[in-house]
Amino acid sequence: MDDIVTIDWEAVDELASQVGKDMVANLFGIFFADTTEHLATCRDTFSQGDFDNLAEVAHKIKGSAGSMGLTKMRVIASDLQDKAEAKADPKELAGLVEALGGAFDEAKQAVDQGR
Prior knowledge:
- By secondary structure, the protein is mostly helical.
- It has a single domain, classed as HPT domain (Four Helix Bundle (Hemerythrin (Met), subunit A), Up-down Bundle), CATH 1.20.120.
- Helices cover 82% and strands 0% of the residues.
- The protein has helices spanning 9-19, 21-47, 51-67, 71-85, 90-113.
- Helix 1 (9-19) packs across helix 2 (21-47), helix 2 runs antiparallel to helix 5 and helix 4 packs antiparallel against helix 5 (90-113).
- The chain is elongated and about 40 Å long.
């Protein structure tokens, strides 16, 4: 997953052209706050073996990340959703939950630093 771009800056620019740069900054703030909670829920539902809710939360992250141009998070969340729905090997799911958290950290750092 290291070869996947963290942020599609063209998508961010397109969003900014539609709603303004200040609104994009606000949206990123909301996204990071909400996703912090969603990631905690992912970890909790995984540890409880609740793969249906894990898939549901991954779906939410996938949609939000995609809307914000956060490509790596969207791809990992999509994979996590699919594999949670299929009740894949828990080791594989654990790796995806961890990877999603790492992609979140990368995205937050990239947004904080700008281009």
